[in-house]
Write a structure and sequence with these properties.
This protein is an alpha+beta fold. It has three domains: about 210 residues, Immunoglobulin-like, CATH 2.60.40; about 170 residues, C8orf32 fold; about 200 residues, Jelly Rolls (Sandwich), CATH 2.60.120.1130. The chain is built from 13 helices and 34 strands. The strands form eight sheets. An eight-stranded mixed sheet has the order 5-4-8-2-1-10-13-12, with helices on one face. A hairpin with a 5-residue loop joins strand 22 and strand 23. Pfam families: DUF3857 (PF12969), Transglut_core (PF01841). InterPro entries: DUF3857, Papain-like_cys_pep_sf, Transglutaminase-like. This is Transglutaminase superfamily protein.
């Protein structure tokens, strides 16, 4: 009986270890790999990663990584993938090192395999700058049907932050596996992101953790997603602590002591010299602050005045970061600083005028973090802004750009969470950005004094729409701005533009459109001069990343067409009312004939600016419908009486 139990135990151990072994062996191909000619979920792909894996183990204070990748060429354009670059951080003292590099390419002629193995002379080491090095090599005779693979070993002494593992590639990936064995003397925090990654539970055995993802879309540029780094299927590990008297094991990368909670980290930051200089400014420095001591001044008015003063008097040097680069005295003397310097100066001046203000750290869009981890790690963040609470309402402020009025942030700062730093109750908070952005267009199309049809259009851009249009106008100039935005020209075209910041940011544009002669049997009249989408921006059949419209908006369009004498209404677009499931967005369109006039009205309302990729088919249809519907003309035709009289 004892022997049987021992045998069962051995089998269990064997099977568990086997489950952590890698199926892919260098130079051994399955029939499925030989047969594949296209990727079902991405049929246009010109190459595919058949499989890649990374196996990681620690030996003392060094991480040893064995990496293996296999690629198949599917189309002629895919032969470009035969040029391979492997980057690693060597630093000044060999933080990372790579050895035992092997590569080969296999072409198939029936059952025959034509194998070309690369030699040592085929691999080149190149300086990548700033401590980085690259191993480069080119596979020969790459053609449709080729399978190439390469592998190497890496030793990494910088174990405070392990290299990110991104499951996706620039081409689709059929299988990607990452495994790591963490010894008992090291404690790591896992930072995972991506829908598949978060849904995948790691397999565990004897300190080894293994993640395996399959059928991964390629990383590619897509409309309404300029920050795809934030949404990659990805794993990161950050050292949280270790059991050792020898601190040298953390290697050549910086190591920060971990903190048990956010308040502990906040207290540490507030005690540092540079940070505390803004929180507790001297009386001498406070004499140079903008001061409004009038008792009857409302909090909001006072805050806006201080915000404008800091914007105009301290120049931004384009340096980002969550920690000040200098103390308050230096910022005031130089009249320039980083984003953290300027916003902490704003905070100091708000507080000196009796207003509540707090620092907030963010991971802005494009920083590679769509999801913050609720553990006190500063390296999640890359920006610092200010939160002020006035008359019970929250305002988030960034004083580095004069284009942004009070309470408006750059759109890359529109994220879900931030780290609020306070003397008490510091920690992650949800962020909400209140605004009423959108386009309001009111038009009238009728006979002018010259006896021709002409449109008179008023377009109002509000808040973030106004900010973006104002920046574009300043970049292009007023004349070119009109041509670029409204896509119209002609002798009769007139555009008048006005802007104001209070009580909210708006841009008003008045347009006198081109004249239409009345010598036509049919008049095709487009009711709307300006629309948000001239054509559907979503053209691909599939979507990898979420859709980020940057901000919510509500557009309203209304035009009255006065039918000229001798014409009558012949045809007009059908009414429409569409809602994207989940009430993400709505679109309405209707035409109302009223005697000798026709009123055309439409509305587009997006309640959510960030839309998961699962809704892509519905959103693609929605945008296609909107862009085509708003271009449909109202058709007027000559009446029979007029036509007969002329005959």
């Amino acid at each position: 009986m004892k022997k049987i139990l021992t045998l069962v135990y051995i089998l269990i151990i064997f099977n568990a270890e086997k489950s952590f072994s890698q199926d892919m062996k260098f130079g051994k191909f399955s029939q499925a790999e030989k047969d594949i000619t296209a990727v079902d979920f991405e049929p246009d792909a010109d190459a595919v990663v058949l499989e890649e894996y990374s196996v990681n183990n620690f030996n003392g204070g060094v991480l040893h990584n064995h990496y293996h990748k296999r690629v198949k060429i599917l189309k002629e354009s895919g032969t470009r993938h035969g040029n391979v670059v492997v980057r690693y951080f060597f630093g000044k003292s060999g933080v990372q090192n790579i050895n035992k590099v092997s590569a080969q390419i296999v072409n198939f002629d029936g059952d025959q395999e034509q194998i070309i193995k690369l030699t040592k002379n085929d691999f080149y080491t190149v300086d990548g700058g700033n401590g980085w090095q690259e191993i480069r090599f080119t596979l020969p005779e790459v053609k449709v049907g080729s399978i190439y693979e390469f592998e190497y070993n890496m030793q990494d002494k910088g174990i405070s932050f392990l290299d990110s593992w991104v499951f996706q590639n620039r081409i689709p990936t059929l299988k990607s596996t990452y495994s790591i064995k963490i010894p008992s003397y090291l404690n790591y925090r896992l930072l995972a992101q991506g829908d598949k990654t978060l849904r995948t539970e790691a397999k565990q055995y004897d300190g080894m953790y293994k993640w395996e993802l399959t059928d991964l879309y390629s990383i590619k540029d897509e409309p309404y997603m300029s920050n795809h780094l934030d949404y990659l299927e990805r794993l990161d590990f950050q050292l949280a602590g270790y059991v050792s008297a020898n601190t040298s094991i953390v290697g050549g990368r910086s190591f920060k002591d971990s903190y048990s909670n956010w308040q502990e980290l906040t207290d540490f930051l507030f005690e540092t010299n540079d940070f505390s200089s803004y929180l507790k400014p001297s009386k001498v420095l406070m004499t140079s602050f903008r001061s409004n001591g009038e008792e009857n001044t409302k909090e909001l008015e006072k805050a806006k005045e201080i915000y404008s003063y800091v914007q105009q008097n301290i120049k931004y040097n384009d340096r980002i970061g969550y920690y000040p680069s200098q103390d308050l005295k230096s910022t005031l003397e130089k009249k320039q600083g980083s984003r953290a310097d300027i916003n902490l100066t704003l905070l100091a001046q708000l507080r000196s005028n009796g207003l509540n203000a707090y620092p907030v750290m963010l991971s802005s869009k494009g920083n590679g973090r769509s999801r913050l981890v609720d553990s006190p790690f500063l390296d999640q963040f890359n920006q610092l802004i200010v939160l002020t609470v006035l008359d019970g309402r929250e305002y988030y402020l960034d004083a580095t750009n004069e284009a942004y009025t009070f309470g408006h942030l750059p759109l890359i700062f529109h994220v879900d969470q931030g780290y609020l730093l306070k003397e008490k109750d510091a920690g992650l908070i949800s962020l909400a950005f209140h605004h009423r952005s959108g386009i309001n267009q009111i038009g009238n199309i009728k006979l002018n004094e010259n006896g021709k049809m002409q449109s008179q259009i008023h377009v109002r851009f509000s808040e973030y729409d106004a900010i973006s249009k104002s920046e574009l106008k300043n970049e292009l100039g007023e004349a070119d701005f009109g041509k670029e935005i409204f896509d119209i020209s002609g002798e009769s075209l007139e555009i008048l533009i006005s802007e104001k910041d209070e009580p909210k940011k708006i841009m008003d544009v008045n347009i006198s459109g081109k004249e239409i002669e009345l010598n036509q049997q049919m008049l095709m009249i487009s009711p709307f001069t300006y629309v948000r989408w001239h054509e559907n921006p979503l053209k691909a059949d599939t979507r990898t990343f979420p859709i980020d419209l940057l901000y919510t908006f509500n557009d309203l369009y209304s035009t009255i067409i006065e039918i000229p004498e001798g014409y009558e209404l012949d045809d007009f677009p059908e009414p429409v009312e569409v809602v994207i499931p989940g009430n993400i967005a709505t679109f309405t369109y209707k035409v109302e004939p009223l005697g000798n006039t026709v009123k055309v009205s439409s509305g587009i309302n997006f309640k959510y600016s960030f839309i998961p990729a699962a809704y892509y088919p519905e959103l693609k249809y929605f945008m296609g419908l909107v862009s085509s519907k708003l271009k449909e003309p109202v058709i007027l035709k000559k009446t029979q009486q007029i036509a007969s009289a002329k005959d």
